[in-house]
Amino acid sequence: MTEMKYGLQSKAYLSAIMDLSDKSIVSFVVGHSNNNELVFRTFDIAHQSYPNAKPIFHSDRGFQYTNKMFKKKLDDAGMIQSMSRVSRCIDNGPMESFWGMIKSEMYYLNKFNT
């Protein structure tokens, strides 16, 4: 998940799930809060799109990914959870690279009022 500021003091959050086999984004959701609901919706869209997939689900250690409800979602879907080491963003390199590309090619080049 990444944060994007707009207007004077507003923030939007973009949550996305990437398939590491081809670097495609299989689901994404934009919201105004970086809460569990945003991550759960992103996960649900990905799982509905690929109901038979049983991937290793890798993430950083954000609170949205470390809570018991998210772990149960993964278990119920038959997925294995994997997390980056503490303070090691390089462990999540492909996703961090994607966020950097989105921000440098789209976000930083524009001013968003709403």
Automatic annotation (TrEMBL):
GO molecular function: nucleic acid binding
One Pfam family from the record: rve
Source organism, top-level taxon: Bacteria
Domain Integrase catalytic: 1-114
Gene Ontology biological process: DNA integration
PROSITE patterns in the cross-refs: INTEGRASE (PS50994)
PANTHER family, A to Z: TRANSPOSASE INSF FOR INSERTION SEQUENCE IS3B-RELATED, TRANSPOSASE INSO FOR INSERTION SEQUENCE ELEMENT IS911B-RELATED
Descriptive protein name: Transposase
Upper classification of the organism: Bacteria, Bacillati, Bacillota, Bacilli, Bacillales
